[in-house]
Every structure is written in C-alpha cells, then in structure tokens.
Amino acid sequence: MRGMGAVFQLPDDRSIALERGDLTRVDADAIVNAANSQLARGGGVCGAIHAAGGPSIAEECRAWVAEHGAVPTGGAAITTGGRLPARFVVHAVGPVWHGGSSREPDLLANAYRSSIEIADGQGLCSIAFPSISTGIFGYPVSLAAPVALEAARGALAAAQNVREVRFVLFDQATHDAYEAALESLSVE
Ligand code: AR6
After folding, report:
1. Which fold is adopted by the domain 7-187?
2. Does residue 168 line the site of ligand 1, with CB under 6 A?
3. How does pLDDT run across 88-134, given as a tens digit for each residue?
C-alpha cells in the first residue's frame, strides 16, 4: 500500500488511487502531461515535467507533431520520460473551459480515455494523472473531478495491461474535490 490516500478497487485487482503530490517525482510506468495541441512547452504541470525530464521530451514532442500533426483536444501522444522516474510521458490535451456548453465534459473524458488506451497499447501497467484542464485551462475542479474519475474507471475496466491508475494532485482543494467525487463513484 502507498500513502494514505483514498483507493477505489475494481475487479481483477485494478485500482484508482488518489494522493497529494508532485507528478514529476512519481515512478509509475507513465505519467500524464496536461498538454496543449501543439505539445509546446507551457506552464503548470507541463512546465514542471519538461524541467524535470530534460530537453529530450520537447525534442520527441516536436518529432511527434511533425509526423502526426497537432494532437486534437481529447487526444494524446506518447514520448519517453527523459530523466523522469517515469519511463513514459503521455501528453493529453484537455479542453479549455468555455462555460460548459462546448462539449467540455466529453472532451475531458476523451483525454483520460485516450491516455489509458495509449499506455495500454504500449503494454504499461501503471499510469499517473494530474487534474487535466483545471489549471491554466480553467475547468472548475468540482465539475472536472467526477468526469475524470468516471472516464478513468471505464477505460481501466476495458484495459488489457493497465492495472493501476493514480491521480497525483498538487493542492489540497483539488485533492478534496477528487475525494468527494470518488465517494460517488460506483462499481457497475
Ligand atoms: N504535479 C501534479 N500536479 C501539478 C503539478 C505537479 N508538479 N504542477 C501543477 N499541477 P495545468 P491545464 C496541477 O495548468 O489546466 C500548460 O501551459 C495544477 O495545480 O498544469 O490542463 C500546457 O502546456 C492543476 O491542478 O494544466 C497547456 O497549454 C493541474 O496540475 C495548458 O497549460 C492542471 O493544471 C494546460 O492547462
């Protein structure tokens, strides 16, 4: 067991765990970056990941976009983790909050699903997320948390390889919002 955060158990030894912390220090197979469509280095958790992981991540991001084009909102791309403890970084593009009637919940759910699917396709077992879109992109965390957890639960249940999803939340208010949302998550 790790830490004292809340854990949601799914069948087949799959779990979703919440913890407070710094994602750049997490040793999951993959950590997820809250990225933009151009995979350009920005602020927030993205800036922290590039700073901690070193320049190879930005180089791989440039190569990825040159080959595949921009990542659509709700999509994800993968690079290695450079100097990070995590082996891979999944760069997920969440929606910018425009008030809630521009398909933001769908797009946010897609960003979580795409991330788990891309990690699963690489044969990875564990993946750790930040709270995508709730910083610079302005998505209210009380609305984002249930969408994030429900999307993660669905994708985890469908995965072949991924067994462990962690949410590594930077501040107490974000952690509290996810904890409240986790209590409403039910096994179906
Ligand atoms: N570990 C975990 N969470 C963190 C960390 C960290 N080290 N640092 C910040 N957070 P944001 P977004 C939290 O703004 O809203 C960038 O410029 C933060 O407190 O990083 O999806 C990108 O390049 C918040 O709860 O991502 C994009 O252009 C959460 O991570 C854009 O910002 C997400 O905040 C993406 O904006």
Report:
1. Leucine Aminopeptidase, subunit E; domain 1 (3.40.220)
2. yes
3. 999 999 999 999 999 999 999 999 999 999 999 999 999 999 999 99
